[in-house]
Design brief:
heterodimer, A: alpha+beta, twelve-stranded mixed beta sheet, about 15% helix, disordered N terminus, B: mainly beta, Immunoglobulin-like, Ferric Hydroxamate Uptake Protein, Chain A, domain 1, 26-stranded antiparallel β-barrel, eight-stranded mixed beta sheet
Chain lengths: ~260, ~950
């Protein structure tokens, strides 16, 4: 699956001489990679492909999904940015107002609440999410997916990452996460975390949604991790949150309609 | 013996205790991580994984001395995994520890070569896949020229050395063996593979240590390892094909054939389609169209006409790709079509080319009753027409889109179409007074041959500046079309009130039209702040229209000067405008104004290269107008959307409306131009409100549009009985200052039982007021319409889907000149459809449609029940075949009905069309048919 993600990788026009390569074959010594505290700001680029998102909805007819990929597969991408601030004590992730796709310049949709805050000192999560027409405030202790650790290595935004896999059966998502080996903070984009390092890239259903860090700035934080200004919303816990999702997914399955028109992927 | 048993029992009972004593429940696992030079590996990630599925149980990092420790973790088997940015990940199995502290001692990690790090990971951005000692990477990220061999590819790869003879070595050792997809290839010589295999076919290169042949043979590991290489072949995972074919035959000699076949991979799509039938299906349906056009389906709408309200003027060339969607269903027709489409798409460059041919021949009989109101009384026309029509089109289209870089994009497209058509029309019109006293009979027998071709081209260039939101776009287009028509006209006019009873006219008419248009638009957008934008645009177009009409009387072949004319018209259009846009958090508004200028020129000659018509002066008109435009879109909280638009429209008169020469040689229906005509100007406002609830899926929408005309173009008529002509109608366009239209409507859909039962309602009301002159008397007419619809979607299970709909429509036309001619037109309908999967893979599908057409004033009342039913079964292990037995119009009642009421006439027409037939069809689907109904009716 990973090797198939070849299309997105740019040719850098590399001209490397094998002889030179051999002379470079030397042992690296471990450098002190934590000269700075693991604290700072990450900008994530979220690239969604709605045809691929629909193609992973198992209860839609195969014909319909194939047809959609055939007509839309290459032209159904949308892009946005998200921001994350992180330190050893916590992290805060939210959608950015900055436009990622320059074709979107000049038109603004209403911003929907989406803030995910983790506090590693109290081991709690605090979220504000707009779900199916309502704003919810989710407070609970930290829970993480059961990551399966894989064995690939790559660089994301200047950081060497390794990967892990998790399948979300409710949302029908196969998730590959790339976590940084040199940023030992157990957080990541959206609701994903729980790996030994900051997750710098997420690939859901082979390109249906890719959330990849395109900027990592290590710097001391000041007030960035403070609680956001109070938002009105219904207070629920994580179990209730999953209950709301499950109800929606069950209904959409029953109606044989795609679930993601009305809910964040 | 008893003692022994007791002892055994004791031992048995204490066994778990003994175990516990040996293996504590909680354990501390610690160790030191170093590299092969014995340097401490600080800040390595150390993970404990579940041995069964590699799920993460616990993790920590080593300190700066390379030391790690997990305290008080459950004592169970673990997979210990240590990763570090500079080393190959280390994995080892840990068994449950017998002691409370499991000291793993020194763990040595192997470094990752700097070349791999720098070249593969950093420069090529390729992921490394590590499998024990094997490192593989994605060969496709290392680009080699097309036609290169694997050897050329290997020369590019870091850490691999290829000498002049093609011998491969890595880390100073020769590669003894090369596998392809894990299998030996072309014997043992690695060079035979690398010199022969195409680099394009390779997806990954793996280098690993292999036990020596000696070890393999003896089974005793002699410790020597050899270097081996595996080349993974590309898995073209997106490659595929699909296709369908249907053969059908039925009663009344009905038949239908259709088929399509598509092949595609990641970058290419190639499709073929063909059909033929005599069941009035003159084109392809939307689903076929989408599968034929693939990724290019929605690219016919490239808009190069920048600015508000579409600065677009002139014509679009065949929006549907000439595939005959939405064709005429009257009469009886036989149609054929075939085409091929190719798409290429590699994200940076998109290319499409397609060809399509379609033809239809139609036989049509139509009976029309038309009543035209005069200032006093009315004229009835009883019209019987028999037509035979043929048309054929070749359409060739190509489109190219290229992202030069992230800031520059070009789109270019060319469409060409060749058409020919011929038509014969035999018509008998019987004119009587309102009291049924005969006036005249007009019998005409006409035929037309038309040949035409057209070319449409467009190019769009877009540039984005570095500043976000600043952009520039430029477009240009050239369109041309050429028609030539030969008409042969024969009419016999029989008079009942004149002394000469019969007049016969025979004419030959040659018409040629050459139209060309050059156009260009430019748009510049400047962000003023993050929320405010300023746009400036310019539209230009120059269109020319040369029309030549030469009419000869037969049999003498004398030119008829009064109706023969050559005209040369041109329209120059310039529009310069500017607008301000505000965009923030769901609120998007635009206000702008433009100055537009229209210059019309027309000159009229007897024939091309012949003298000017003395009686007709050249036309030169210039219209200058300021046109404002406002558009507001507001997305409120909770999924509510509001929009409000205002525009001021100025549309210049058509060339034929201005032409000062009668454009008809039929003396019963003379159409005159009006050179003094002004452009039609109107204000229009539209409003809409939509709400949907994403949790319950209920939705509601309201909309309203209104327009107020300042100078409406209307067609005044003079209708009188003329000696030697019979009833003559002269039509001439003119401007009228008033005219209003308003329509409001709503629609809503509410699920009553989620996913099982939903109810939809819709309704609309519209009112229109206009006026025209009939025999110089002003006739104000008012049109009021009310429509109401109700529908129920019932889907109790995926095996049973019921759809019930009803609609009511009332239309009232009133006329100031004759109150007693007010018309009440009604169109009502009931529709029911049932889909039922009654046995596995067998489906019953039936629909019933009852339509009522009423006009009280004329005692017109037609009720048409149409019942269709079919049974189909999916056959075969792979569900690739489908057999279907269908009955169309079981009651044998289908006819085509049209009811129209306009400013001064009302008509009802009936055309017989394809009625009852039965048909058996066999279909084959390469990908197999769905064996369930599917509730979802979405079309993509």
């Amino acid at each position: 699956m990973i090797n198939n993600r070849i299309t997105s990788i740019r040719n850098t026009g590399l001209h490397f001489k094998a002889g030179l390569a051999l002379t470079l074959l030397m042992v690296m010594t471990a450098v002190n990679i934590f000269a700075q505290k693991p604290e700072g700001y990450i900008r994530y680029l979220r690239t969604g492909n709605w045809a691929k998102q629909m193609a992973a909805v198992d209860y839609l007819s195969k014909q319909q999904r194939d047809r959609m990929m055939y007509m839309w597969g290459n032209r159904s991408e949308y892009k946005s940015f998200a921001n994350m601030w992180f330190s050893l004590s916590g992290s805060k992730y939210e959608d950015s107002e900055e436009k990622a796709d320059r074709d979107d310049e000049g038109y603004n949709w209403r911003k929907e609440e989406y803030t995910i805050m983790r506090n590693f000192e109290t081991q709690t999560i605090h979220e504000v999410q707009y779900i199916l027409g309502k704003t919810y405030i989710i407070d609970d202790s930290l829970h993480y997916p059961n990551w399966k650790i894989l064995n690939d290595m790559k660089e994301v935004a200047g950081h060497i990452c390794m990967n892990a896999f998790y399948e979300d059966t409710l949302k029908m998502q196969k998730i590959i996460a790339w976590y940084a080996l040199d940023l030992p903070v157990s957080t990541g984009p959206e609701r994903l975390g729980g790996l030994p390092g900051v997750i710098l890239e997420i690939d859901i259903n082979d390109g249906a949604m890719v959330i990849a860090a395109d900027k990592v700035e290590l710097k001391p934080l000041t007030t960035e991790l403070d609680l956001p200004k109070k938002v009105k919303g219904r207070k629920i816990n994580e179990a209730q949150y999953y209950g709301i999702l499950k109800k929606h997914f069950d209904e959409r399955r029953e109606a044989e309609e795609p679930p993601f028109w009305s809910i964040r992927y | 013996m008893r003692h022994f048993v007791n002892l055994c029992l004791l031992l048995l009972l204490s066994f778990p205790l003994l175990l516990t004593a040996q293996n504590p429940s909680k354990v501390t696992i610690k160790g030191v991580v170093r590299d092969s030079t014995n340097a401490e590996a600080g800040y390595a990630t150390v993970m404990l994984l579940n041995t069964k599925d590699s799920t993460l149980v616990n993790f920590t990092t080593t300190n700066d001395k390379g030391v790690f420790s997990f305290s008080a973790v459950r004592n169970m088997p673990y997979l210990l995994k240590i990763s570090h940015i500079s080393y190959i990940p280390h994995q080892e199995m840990l068994q449950p520890s017998a002691t409370e502290v499991n000291d793993l001692g020194v763990i040595i990690m192997k470094p990752i070569s700097q070349a791999l790090m720098e070249v593969v990971i950093k420069a090529a951005k390729a992921p490394l896949r590590i499998r024990g000692d094997t490192i593989e990477y994605d060969a496709t990220t290392f680009k080699v020229p097309p036609g290169s061999t694997v050897e050329d590819l290997l020369r590019r790869l870091p850490g691999i050395d290829v000498d002049a003879e093609g011998n491969i070595s890595t880390q100073g050792k020769d590669v003894k063996r090369v596998y392809v997809d894990g299998k030996t290839f072309f014997g043992d010589d690695p060079k035979s593979v690398t010199k022969n295999l195409d680099a394009e076919a390779i997806s990954k290169v793996q280098v690993f240590d292999e036990k020596s042949e000696q070890t393999k043979l003896t089974g005793v590991d002699d410790g020597t390892k050899e270097k081996a290489m595996n080349l993974g072949l590309k898995e073209e995972y997106k490659k595929g094909s699909f296709g369908k074919a249907t053969v059908a035959g039925g009663t009344s000699e009905r038949w239908a054939l259709r088929g399509n076949y598509n092949r595609f991979n990641e970058k290419n799509q190639l499709s073929f389609i063909g059909y033929g039938n005599n069941i009035n299906q003159a084109g392809v349906n939307w689903e076929d169209y989408g599968e034929f056009k693939g990724q290019n389906t929605f690219n016919d709408y490239d808009n190069g006409d920048f600015g508000f309200g579409g600065g677009g003027r002139g014509y679009y060339v065949f929006m549907d790709g000439g595939m005959g969607m939405g064709s005429d269903r009257r009469g009886y027709s036989k149609s054929y079509g075939a085409g091929v489409n190719y798409n290429f798409d590699n994200k940076k460059t998109k290319y499409n080319a397609s060809y399509f041919y379609n033809q239809t021949s139609q036989d049509l009989d139509q009976y029309t009753n038309k009543s035209t109101f005069l200032t006093e009384g009315s004229v009835l026309n009883n019209d019987t027409v028999n037509q035979s029509n043929f048309y054929g089109n070749h359409s060739i289209g190509t489109r190219f889109e290229h992202d030069i870089d992230s800031n520059n994009k070009i789109i270019a497209k060319v469409n060409v179409k060749f058409s020919n058509s011929n038509n014969t029309n035999y018509q008998v019109q019987r004119f009587t007074t309102g009291e049924l006293a005969p006036i005249n009979n007009l019998i005409s027998d006409n035929s037309t041959d038309l040949g035409s071709w057209s070319l449409g081209t467009a190019a769009i260039y877009r540039h984005r500046f570095l500043k976000a939101g600043r952009s520039f776009a430029l477009s240009a287009g050239y369109n041309t079309s050429h028609n030539s028509t030969a008409d042969s006209l024969l009419s016999i006019n029989q008079f009942f009130t004149a002394t000469t009873f019969t007049e016969q006219i025979r004419q030959l008419k040659d018409r040629a039209t050459d139209a060309t248009e050059i156009k260009s638009s430019a748009l510049y957008t400047e962000p003023i702040t993050k929320k405010w934008y300023w746009e400036t645009f310019y539209n230009f177009s120059l269109s020319g229209n040369e029309a030549n009409r030469q009419v000869k009387s037969l049999p003498e072949e004398n030119r008829i000067d009064s109706v023969s004319v050559y005209s040369d018209n041109s329209t120059l259009y310039n529009r310069l405008g500017s607008s301000i846009r505000y965009s923030n958090n769901g609120f998007n508004a635009m206000a702008g104004i433009a100055l537009q200028q229209l210059k019309l020129n027309g000159s009229y000659l007897q024939d091309e290269d012949m003298p000017f018509l003395d009686s007709v002066p050249d036309i030169k008109r210039t219209y200058k107008n300021w046109v404002p435009n406002i558009s507001i879109n507001y997305q409120l909280p909770n999924n509510m959307y509001l929009s409000l638009d205002y525009s001021y429209n100025v549309d210049e008169p058509s060339v034929s409306d201005l032409a000062p020469v009668p454009n008809s040689s039929n003396r019963n229906f003379l159409v005159l131009g009006n050179p003094d005509l002004k452009p039609a100007r109107s204000h229009s406002v539209s409003f809409s409100y939509n709400y949907w609830n994403p949790a319950s899926f209920a939705n509601i929408g309201l909309f309203s549009t209104a327009s107020l005309s300042e100078d409406r173009i209307v067609y005044n008529q003079w209708i009188k009985t003329v000696q030697g002509v019979g009833l003559q109608t002269i039509t001439k366009p003119d401007n009228i200052s008033d005219g209003k239209d308003l329509s409001v409507g709503l629609w809503s859909n509410v699920p009553i039982i989620k996913t099982k039962f939903s109810v939809g309602v819709d309704g609309s009301f519209n009112i229109g007021e206009s006026a025209s002159f009939v025999n110089d008397i002003r006739n104000d007419n008012k049109n009021t319409g009310v429509d109401f619809g109700l529908n129920f979607d019932i889907t109790p299970s995926t095996k049973f889907i019921l759809d019930l709909r009803g609609s009511l429509g009332f239309n009232k036309m009133s006329y100031s000149i004759q109150k007693d001619q007010d018309q009440n037109i009604q169109n009502h309908g009931v529709y029911a459809s049932l889909k039922w999967q009654f046995i596995n893979k067998t489906f019953l599908e039936t629909s019933y449609n009852y339509t009522v057409y009423i006009n009280d004033r004329w005692n017109f009342d037609r009720r048409i029940p149409i019942w269709n039913a079919s049974v189909r079964r999916i056959i075969g292990e792979k569900n690739r075949f489908e057999a279907r037995l269908a009955a169309f119009d079981i009651f044998n009642k289908r006819v085509s009905i049209t009811q129209t009421a306009t400013s001064n006439y009302v008509l009802q027409s009936i055309a017989p069309t394809l009625a009852r037939y039965f048909m058996l069809s066999i279909s084959y689907n390469l990908r197999g048919y769905e064996t369930k109904l599917g509730k979802n009716r979405m079309m993509f």
